[in-house]
Design a protein that fits this description.
Largest sheet: 2 strands, antiparallel
Oligomer: single chain
Radius of gyration: 16 Å
Number of strands: 2
Order of helices and strands: HHHHHHEEHHH
Helix content: 55-70%
Shape: globular
């Protein structure tokens, strides 16, 4: 286990949350020099934070290098994966901003359809198929991005009720700003 790489991914998260974009870039540059077991995740994290800054041309290039987004990846860092990292919302934003509107709309509709079906299965509980439901923040993030305020707030309430809200809710992310 490359503990230094894990520390660096966490440092990139902290810098991103603080809006210290120069530190994010320096940390990612350092990560790119390491023999990380999956260098595509560095590019995924880069795409996430570039999208958060509105640097969509760079984010598009990083996203292309990142390849498919895994459901879960360790360490849990923003942009690393779909569940904790909220990468799907960043991906939709990047696709739209780089002229791939149809692909962005198709992906958004597919994901929202899945999240809505899962949300219906969860009801007022916190589990689906006897497992803790971990899609609250994915749903909230994408719904907020798509301008679906009531749907995003409902998912945020579910996250709060089920204990998922604190680690994933970053109100400084541009897609959550519409919920003010």
């Amino acid at each position: 286990v490359d503990m230094e790489a894990i520390r660096l991914f966490i440092a990139a998260d902290i810098a991103g949350v603080m809006g210290d974009w120069a530190a994010v870039d320096r940390t990612l540059a350092t990560l790119r020099t390491r023999n990380w077991r999956d260098p595509t995740r560095v590019e995924s994290v880069a795409a996430f934070w570039q999208a958060a800054q509105g640097r969509y041309a760079e984010a598009g290039a990083s996203l292309a290098q990142a390849g498919p987004i895994p459901e879960v990846m360790i360490p849990p860092a923003m942009g690393m994966d779909a569940i904790y990292g909220l990468m799907e919302t960043a991906q939709v934003r990047i696709l739209r901003a780089t002229g791939r509107e149809a692909e962005a709309s198709r992906l958004s509709a597919e994901l929202l359809g899945r999240f809505r079906a899962e949300r219906a299965a969860v009801g007022q509980g916190c589990t689906v198929d006897r497992r803790r439901y971990d899609g609250w923040m994915r749903h909230a993030s994408l719904a907020a991005n798509e301008g679906l305020k009531d749907e995003a707030v409902d998912a945020l309430r579910g996250a709060l009720r089920c204990g998922e809200l604190p680690p994933s809710f970053l109100p400084q992310l541009p897609w959550f700003s519409a919920l003010d």
